[in-house]
Amino acid sequence: MAQLQGKVIPIPIEDEIKNSYLNYAMSVIVSRALPDARDGLKPVQRRILYAMYEMGLRHDRAYKKCGRIVGDVLGKYHPHGDQSIYDALVRLAQDFSLRYPMVIGQGNFGSVDGDPPAAMRYTEAKLQKIAEEMLKDINKETVDFIPNYDDSLKEPSVLPAAVPYLLVNGVSGIAVGMATNMAPHNLNEVAKAISAYIKNPNIKDKELLKYIKGPDFPTGGIIYGLKGIRSSYLTGKGAITVRARFTLETLRSGKDAIIVTEIPYAVNKTNLLEKIASLVKDKKIDGISEIRDESDRNGMRIVFELKRGAIPKVIINRLFKMTPLQTVFYVNNVALVDGRPKTLTLKELIKYFVDHRQEIVIRRAKYDLKKAEERAHILEGLKIALDNIDEVIAIIKKSRTVDTARTNLIKRFSLSERQAQAILDMRLQKLTSLETRKIVEELQATLKLIAELKALLASEEKILQVVKEETLKIAEDYGDDRRTEIVPEEAENLDIEDLIQKEDMVVIISKDGFIKRMPVSAYRRQGRGGRGLSGGKLNGDDAVTHLFIASTHDYILFLSNEGKAYYLKVHEIPEGSRIARGKIIRSLIQMSPDEDVSAVVAISSFESDDFLFLVTAKGYAKRLDISTLSNAKTRGVNAISLDNGDYLVDALLTKGNGEVVLVSRGGYALRCKEEHFRVMGRTARGVSAMNLSAGDEICGAALVEKDKYLLLVSSYGYGKRLSFEQFSPHGRATKGQIAYKVSEKTGELAAAISVDYKDDIMVVTAQGNIIKMAVKDVSEMGRQASGVKVVNIDNADYAVSVDRIARDKD
Description:
By secondary structure, the chain is α+β, with helices and mostly antiparallel strands. It has four domains: 41-160, Topoisomerase II, domain 5 (Alpha-Beta Complex); 245-324, 2-Layer Sandwich (Gyrase A, domain 2), CATH 3.30.1360.40; 351-478, Topoisomerase, domain 3 (Orthogonal Bundle); 501-805, DNA gyrase/topoisomerase IV, subunit A, C-terminal (Neuraminidase, 6 Propeller). It is 29% helix and 25% strand. It is built from 17 helices and 41 strands. It has a four-stranded mixed beta sheet with strand order 14-9-8-17. A four-stranded antiparallel beta sheet has the order 10-11-13-12, with helices on one face. Mean pLDDT is 88; it is low at 490-494 and 529-535. Residues 34-499 form the Topo IIA-type catalytic domain. This is DNA gyrase subunit A. It comes from Rarispira pelagica. GO terms for molecular function: DNA topoisomerase type II (double strand cut, ATP-hydrolyzing) activity.
């Protein structure tokens, strides 16, 4: 036997490697990892849906084993391994992976916890109803069919896809040298954007953002900022920040808890909890006492129980910074256009979908027209036969064979061969008058349909109108509400109080610098002369110096004895029980060791036109524009310069055009206009406000308000109400008028505030006892009166502060 002769062709190894690798890369890009811009599907997804459609697995039919489905796909269309096919099938059924799942799964198809699906021999599946819209009209020559891998069968090169799958479900895939990561969207919004594009193909990219607000993830969450959304829609690339959705609750134990109900897209819940538990254990996140996963079939619920005194805002910010409770979704809109990978903008994604649907409608109309014309041709022959039935029967009877009869009919009535055959195939029952009329009506309807289809094919506008109507109908049938909330950039640093219930809080500050807050509801109203409830456990010589009431959403402005201003949000002050001592204030704001809090005021916003009216013990006062303190925060800024031995006693939030009453401990009150005190800078001392007697000091100030009263409380628990009309206006730096008859029994005045007759007030003593009572229980009296017993005080105790409780309308 002769030895085979061959020729060796030398090829450089780098060329062979380059060609082989490029062929492999293009195979992965085109046949595996990237979706087609028309139907939005990767080849494996398209083959799964088509195989299930061929198997008759409609949404209203019985399930079939996933092993059977995978076997069909593997054997007929996709010879790349059963596991890859099953993984793709499982993902098509997961409601936490796809915004609009294409497959109904029965059995374990995995979970958001990262649990793997059961083996394919245990699970079953069938098509969702919306998936049938992806395959609708596929048998009407709407798409091209290509040979499968072994040329034994045909498979669709693309699906008709009435659903804008790529936009509503997104896709992720890693090819060779490129990748794709497209976000899911809300079907209703996408349909509106498609409708707007069809109405105006020259619509600007930015205008489409009016219809599609942003991604809509199946797991919900909150998108922060619009910059990443704009970038991804206008350029095809962008980074979108997604946060978990959470609320704050107070548990039965009285502790605060962070409740997470939605996590960012594609985050594994089990891994997330393990990560957070590890950070808590390593004390990188402090303040969490317990982590519980209370999720059930009704939804997700992750509980982070906080330690007493922990500040929720700090912990939440750390969770966002250090854990996947905040992630970034990197958009990379890469899809195949005419078999080539291309980065697509939002408008281009819509354009390729509309172009594809336009082609589908045209091909479907041509198919329907061809079938209608064929049917009309037959019906016209049948009508001729029915109109000449006696002659037709006679011709058939005289004919020796079927072929002869067909030829004779063609010759006599000028029929086509198909028409003649249809006449011969017609059953005798068609000769009844009812059946005859049905044929005539069907012919008329068919001729009308032909006219409509020709008109449709002749008008691009009508074709686009069909695309628009069918897309809107899909949205009507399968669309739902948006799940992912979008927070604009201007609210990107949203304060935590948006998640905290608005509630009035009692805030108490002691002489030694301890602070705490408690709900006003923790104190029941008592009658005049009550002893009150304990407001805190004080040590040694410590005493309560300030009590005020503010909403959890307010700013608290602290003014120190050195004239500096600091602020916190009320919710940032640790909540404590009635007997708790509280937290040292220097751990919340950066006061020096020698500073003490002299005055406090609640402010809803620093961006208002309001003023801060500051009053010192030695009788100086000034007005300060509130906006000048907007950067005070916890480090503090100067608010007023003080003389040696002087200190702030009160601060009022004013409009700048009213009147104030200054009250001294010795019982004098001076009513004067605010305009007498000009607006000054932060470092100014102020001007003389009240001429005080030797040894006297100012104890407080109040705004003169219509239909309200001046409430005075003495250090030994006596008090009274006075009408503001009892005081005549004077110029500043005068002594004022007698307002209270101070005696050894009453003690000097401790506090003065403006109140309404319907208000409730709270009085606090140095030892921390608090009484809540109605203003109406305190008698209205003249300027010379000593008042009535407001609170029953022990010998070693004395009243230090009073504040009113805001009603709902306030």
